[in-house]
Design goal:
Blueprint lengths: L2 H10 L26 E7 L18 H6 L4 E7 L5 H10 L27 H7 L3 E6 L29 E5 L10 E3 L2 E2 L9 E3 L29 E2 L2 E2 L3 E3 L11 H15 L5 E6 L20 H23 L6 E7 L35 H4 L3 E4 L8 E8 L3 H8 L16 H5 L10 E3 L5 E3 L3 E4 L18 E4 L15 H17 L4
Parallel strand pairs: 1-11, 1-12, 2-14, 3-4, 3-11
Antiparallel strand pairs: 2-13, 4-5, 5-6, 7-10, 8-9, 12-13, 15-16, 16-17, 17-18
Helix pairs in contact: 4-8, 5-6
């Protein structure tokens, strides 16, 4: 199918792609069909809220490509991230284990050590065992190297994301608002001049280097909270950096760089099965969209960054068609957590937001324990196999992707691997199928347990440890069926439910697994 035919098909719907619903052939959820996806493309947006894609929210036209593209797949409405912040969610996705089980997996500093032990069974390693070439492009935020004060950015970095099961990686070293502001390809900083070595620390600046506080008047984007240490490309960052001038990225070009690297990976491996993880950065601060998107939405840089993300998805999908791989490729699009407007820079995201509802009217945002912080958009498409134009209310978590992808590729999951990951492939293949998962556990800033109807949040001051809670009714309990915006705490009125859910949360901690 050529590009013109593809776009016409999206505009008319996707009836030609709809296949009969495929059902699970066993309790494990292994598809009855003998067809397995030859390739998997997993696109994980950063900080896109449940209402940021127009096909979910009330703001029309913000994501025109995705709005048309969703007709070729399934739009899920009850999918949650395992955390309301970035690092724990990504850790959970790739390991199939809730991040709160592993100390030190909260928001990783820019010079963090690799958080996933190379010896662990990971999602990407099982994709390798299934016969796929594996690639990771974009945001990683799970550390690399031996850690603070020990990672030498001027030499091949070990251990790196490649040691967790990726054959190819092209990643930002940390996050867009943290130093070092460089790309790392297969463990080596890209474009580094050996005569201008990189130095990084998070305690003090280097003599002669610009400073976000001292040189605030010179910044092209002012900071609001933090983000006032090193100045890179006229923007204050977290942490200090010296050297590596030729290797420093250009913020405006980041989305294009990641998209081009992702498409190049698919091009190189078009003749063999591949798994591609693309972690986009656009909506995460600092929001610096390419000039061709600036002013495209009337919502300031955050809205323009959302439009830029939509274009990234378009380019990736069109590349699959160009390579003749679309009907052999399962594509999953989602976000790592809920949205945030003011996240440390004076970029006028609040003032220019207008009537747009990034969380689609849910309570809470990124960094909160409410649905607005953890319910995320989730779109699955596999033309010819997965029914198109469908909506599914199956209740599951992004931690379930590890087991689900493994089952779809027909690879065995080793005993004790993926302790919190459920196989929800049956829901992918047939939106009418129920989810095997009953409880979702989310973290940050407080642990919570969520069923399709009920949500229980640990009491404040519990230290995110249910083993220290003496009275579960001091927590918060919401009836999501009758109170979807989590306004009425029923913990005292329904102590039976509060204690029951608390007991299940406590058991999950003690048992060491939930599946």
């Amino acid at each position: 199918m050529n590009r013109r035919t593809f776009l016409k098909t999206l505009g008319l719907g996707a009836a030609a792609w709809v296949a009969p619903g495929c059902r699970s052939s066993s309790a494990t959820g292994i598809p009855a069909t003998s067809r397995r996806p030859r390739n998997i493309v997993f696109i994980l947006a950063d900080d896109i809220g449940y209402g940021d894609l127009s096909c979910y929210g009330p703001t029309p036209g913000l994501t025109p490509f995705i709005d048309a593209y969703v007709k070729s797949g399934v739009r899920f409405t009850h999918v949650h991230s395992p955390s309301s912040v970035c690092t724990p969610t990504r850790f959970s996705i790739f390991t199939g284990s809730y991040a709160w089980r592993t100390p030190g997996t909260f928001i990783a500093p820019g010079d963090a050590a690799l958080l996933i032990p190379p010896s662990w069974t990971t999602l990407q390693r099982l994709m390798q065992r299934s016969g796929m070439v594996t690639g990771a492009v974009g945001k990683w935020h799970l550390g690399m190297g031996p850690g603070p004060g020990k990672t030498d950015w001027n030499k091949p970095i070990s251990p790196s994301a490649n040691d967790t099961g990726f054959d190819y990686t092209f990643l930002m070293a940390a996050t867009a608002d943290r130093v070092p502001c460089v790309y790392v390809e297969n463990g080596t900083v890209v474009g580094l001049d050996p005569n201008d070595p990189i130095e990084v620390n998070y305690k003090h600046n280097y003599p002669g280097e610009p400073d976000g506080k001292r040189d605030r008047a010179t910044l092209k984007m002012d900071w609001d909270i933090g983000h006032n240490m090193a100045v890179i490309n006229g923007i204050g960052r977290i942490g200090y950096m010296k050297g590596g001038k030729k290797a420093i990225w250009k913020d405006e070009e980041m989305a294009d760089v990641f998209t081009e690297k992702a498409c190049a990976f698919m091009e190189r491996h078009k003749d063999e099965p591949f798994f591609l993880y693309l972690g986009t950065n656009d909506i995460h601060v600092p929001r610096v969209p390419h000039p061709r998107f600036v002013g495209s939405t009337g919502m300031g840089v955050r809205g323009d960054a959302i439009r830029q993300f939509d274009d990234t998805v378009r380019r990736v999908i069109e590349k699959l068609y160009e390579l003749g791989l679309r009907e052999e490729t399962l594509v999953v699009i989602t976000s790592d957590n809920g949205p945030v407007l003011n996240d440390g820079y004076k970029d006028h995201a609040v003032e220019l937001n207008g009537n747009h509802l990034p969380n689609n009217g849910l309570k809470g945002w990124k960094f909160t324990p409410y649905l607005g912080g953890t319910r995320v958009p989730f779109i699955v498409s596999w033309p010819g196999t997965i029914p198109g134009g469908q909506t599914c209310d199956a209740h599951f978590s992004l931690v379930d992707l590890a087991a689900t992808f493994a089952v779809l590729r027909g690879v065995n999951i080793p005993e004790k691997a993926f302790p919190d990951s459920y196989d929800v492939s049956a829901c992918f293949l047939d939106p009418a199928q129920p989810s095997p998962r009953k409880d979702l556990i989310c973290q940050d800033p407080l642990m919570s347990l969520c069923t399709k109807r009920w949500k229980y949040i640990l009491p404040a001051g519990s230290g995110n440890n249910p083993l220290k809670v003496k009275d579960p009714t001091l927590g918060r309990l919401y009836d999501l069926t009758n109170d979807p915006t989590e306004n009425k705490n029923l913990a005292k009125q329904r102590p039976d439910v509060a204690k029951q859910l608390f007991g299940r949360l406590k058991a999950a901690v003690i048992q060491g697994h939930t599946n």
